[in-house]
Structure formats: C-alpha cells, structure tokens
Amino acid sequence: MTKKSTPAAFKADTVLTHTGRKPREFHGFVNPPVVHASTILFPDTATMETGGQPYVYGRRGTPTTEALENALTEIEGAAGTKLANSGLNAIALACLSCLKSGDHVLIADTSYGPTRHFADTVLPKYNIAVEYYDPALAGDVKTLFKTNTAAVFTEAPGSLTFEMQDIPAIAAAARSIGATVLMDNTWASPRYCKPLELGVDLSIQAGTKYVVGHSDVMLGAISASEKAWPALDALHGAMGVHVAPDDVYLALRGLRTLSVRLERHMKNTLAVIDWLKTREEVAAIRYPALETDP
Ligand SMILES: *Cc1c(COP(=O)(O)O)cnc(C)c1O
Fold first, then answer.
1. pTM for the whole structure
2. Annotation says 112 is catalytic
3. CATH number listed for the domain at residues 12-256
4. Cross-strand pairs, 57
C-alpha cells in the first residue's frame, strides 16, 4: 500500500464489511440466510390485517433481498434501495418512476448504449420526449431546459469514452426547476462515488459489474433520495420486479471484497496504460485518473 488510509477511507471499508448484516437475528451466523420464498404464512388473520409481520409475500421482499437493499442504502446514503433484474432494468425502472406522458428528459450523450436504446424505443411510446446533451455542458445544461423538463440522466465516467461530468452543477440546475436527477454510477461504483451527496435523486448501479464482481450474476439496484423514494418504491412494486435469492446472496458476497478488487483494478489499469503509451497504433488514452485526461 502506497496510499495512507484516511479515517474516511477506513470507515467506508468497515461499512462494506458489516453493512446489511444482522447476525443476532440469525442465531449469530454472520451472513443472512438465502431465503427461497413465495407464500408467507401469518399466525392469524389479525396479524395479516394489521401488517404485524415484516414480510408478506416473496416478491415483496425477504430477509435476503432486504439485506442487500439495506447495505446499498447505507453505502449510498439513500432513503431506500430497490433491486432490479439487471443494470438496464434498474435504468428503465428509475426513468419510469420519475417520468410521465408529456415530459421531456435530458440524457447525457455519453450514456451506456442500451440506456439510449431504452430511451429511443420505449419512452417515445409513452409520449416522453428524449434529448441528448453534451456531458461537457455542466451547469449550462440549463440552456436546454424546457417547461416540461422532468429529469436529467447523467453518467460519469460515461460509457465508453469516460467523460466526467460536473454532477453538482448539473444537479443544482435540475433541482432549480424541480427536475429529478438520475445517475448511472456503475463505472465509479458506490465505493468511489456517492451520487446522493452530489445532489442526485436516483443513483443506479449495474451490480452485474463491480458489486457482483465475478461475471456470474445479472443484477441492478436503484438507491433513492427522500424525494424520489416513494415513486420508485410504488413503481417497483407495481411492476412485480424480483431478484432471485441466490443472485442477491452473491451480490452481498461481492460487496465484501469490492474495495480490495477495485484497488487491484486501478493498479492493473495503470500498468496497461503504461504499455498502451508505448504503442504507435494508440492515438489517445482516455482514463479519468490520468493527469492528461480532459
Ligand atoms: C453493464 C452496464 C449497465 C447495464 O447493466 P446490465 O446488468 O448488463 O444490464 C449499465 N450501465 C453501465 C455503465 C454498464 O457498464
């Protein structure tokens, strides 16, 4: 280790280790059980009628899904988190939770390709106007605002050219007109970027990538601010989204090693970059951590 740990870095890694765990509720076992469930029994009708039991039906949540949701909620500093069947599913749900017919949405031109495909093929069917913006605009994104602009969708670093965006400036501009701010936070991961602290309302994670980390699960997550949470929670329930317990468990396991894996990622990337610099056929290297990166 060349970098000295700051108290803040120490705290984040400690949180990654312990978050979402409730060993005292499961006989002291460190990890939550993998609960396979559909029907849930109630001891009597009164308990069912008064909501006196935390779980009501498998689709609506289990101790396993709740453990991952709680973990991501704590890491993101959110009001709540919902899991999705893939990163793209999380993007679609987040968009649909804050957009309605007649709205206009601004999407960063550098967004992940399938995000654009969803925006171009699904949103227009519901009379939602899609417009792409230059990620370099920062706060000047406001020059594109219309009276019906309801949301701004950001992604930084962006796919696949790694543009960074001034998220606080974009978020402040969007909030000044009451628009919801979304961010695809997959590339930075919740370990290195906390979108909600920067003014974002819906922080999206393709858990498939760094959180799961072993190329064996498709999973997405959306962490919401107080403002965005009720609509997300309602839409997620209405759409019947459910992630299978074994996949949720693998994501929880992946979370525990996120920090050490990302450190190695960075080290390896810098080594590859050193090699790329020696290659004649490489015209430019785009990597936000480089001092030469715009
Ligand atoms: C992979 C990816 C997604 C989509 O995640 P899936 O789980 O593959 O649907 C979204 N955004 C970014 C930046 C990604 O890299």
1. 0.95
2. yes
3. 3.40.640.10
4. 39
pLDDT tens-digit map of 55-101: 999 999 999 999 999 999 999 999 999 999 999 999 999 999 999 99
The pair of structure tokens assigned to 275 is 């090699």
For ligand 1, the distance from its centroid to the CA atom of residue 84, given in whole angstroms, is 12
**Any atom of ligand 1 within 6 Å of the Cβ of 209:** yes
285: CB partners within 8 A, 6+ apart: 273, 276, 277, 292
Which listed residue (21, 82, 103, 112) is catalytic? 112
Give which of 156, 172, 168, 194 is closest to 78, Cα–Cα: 194
In one-letter notation, the amino acid at residue 76 is E
Q: What is the per-residue pLDDT across 139-184, written as a single tens digit (0 to 9) for each?
A: 999 999 999 999 999 999 999 899 999 999 999 999 999 999 999 9
Return the SS3 of 81.
strand
- Residue ranges of the domains in the chain? 12-256
